[in-house]
Design a protein that fits this description.
mainly beta, eight-stranded antiparallel beta sheet, three-stranded mixed beta sheet
């Protein structure tokens, strides 16, 4: 069943006891019983829905440490990478199932604003198709082409290689909503191969290679503005 990222926006900010959250998740897999494993840490509480490929993060409500509200939703691309060795463990950890796909992105704006390449140049506006279907095989490059340049990006540490858009305007039916989007790429651990043409152009650095990696997780969070 397709999952519209815009449909998650109304859930953000809801209290952990709000039944609307469970109701919305139940619609994603009508034949699957919605169950979760809850993990509590000093700064956050997570509800991991392994059968749905989702994890929900709850943080204390502003001004009330005892009330938790939904801050973000992580969607995991759990399809295996043949180049990634499988860890050995005496007791296998819970794993996320493949999430509902495609992840459907309905953009509110049909134009994409590109920043000027050089100082003094004007911004460029190009047409943007209104809908993007993110499949399990969709690459970071394909996503950036539709979302535009990210607000932030980084690499290294436990997160890996990631891109973030602090506020993206989407359509939920006829209503426009804003969400933040964070994309983490699935590192193939050096198994990817550059073409001769790409090598001649001087490509081969981390960001050149990461552009062709599949997405590993997508976080939908409360927008920064």
């Amino acid at each position: 069943m397709p999952l519209s990222l815009a449909s998650l926006a109304p859930l953000l900010g809801r209290e952990i006891t709000d039944t609307a959250i469970e109701t919305a998740l139940a619609r994603l897999a009508p034949t699957t019983k919605v169950e979760y494993e809850e993990k509590t840490y000093p700064d956050a509480t997570y509800r991991n829905y392994y059968a749905l490929g989702l994890s929900l993060c709850f943080l204390p409500k502003s001004g009330s440490q005892s009330v938790l509200v939904l801050d973000s939703i992580d969607i995991f691309n759990s399809t295996p990478d043949s180049a990634t060795p499988k860890p050995r463990a005496s007791k296998p950890a819970p794993t996320y199932a493949v999430p509902p796909t495609p992840l459907v992105v309905h953009f509110a704006e049909t134009e994409l604003v590109l920043p000027p390449r050089k100082p003094g140049e004007k911004e460029v506006r190009v047409p943007r198709p209104p809908v993007l279907d993110i499949e399990l095989s969709t690459t970071a490059r394909e996503i950036v082409r539709r979302f535009g340049e990210p607000t932030r990006k980084g690499a290294g540490g436990w997160v890996g290689v990631w891109l973030e858009w602090g506020s993206v305007e989407l359509k939920d039916g006829e209503e426009a909503v804003k969400v933040g989007i964070m994309l983490e790429m699935k590192d193939p651990k050096g198994a990817e191969e550059m073409t001769e043409e790409q090598k001649k152009k001087g490509m081969g650095g981390l960001w050149d290679r990461a552009a062709f990696w599949r997405w590993g997780s997508i976080k939908v969070f409360r927008p920064t503005k």
